[in-house]
Amino acid sequence: MRETLRIEILGVPLDKVTLKQAVTKVEKMLESGKTRIIVTPNAEIIMAAQKNPKLLQAISQADLSLPDGIGVVIASRILGNPLPERIAGFDLMVEMLKIAERYQLSVYLLGGKPGVAEKAAAAIKSKFPGVKIVGTHHGYFDEKEQEKIADKINDVRPHFVFVGMGAPRQELFMTENKDKIHGSIMMGVGGSLDVLAGRVKRAPEWMQKTGFEWLYRLLQEPSRIKRIAKLPLFLVKVAAMRGDKKLET
Question: How is the chain split into domains, by residue range?
Answer without folding.
Answer: 6-248
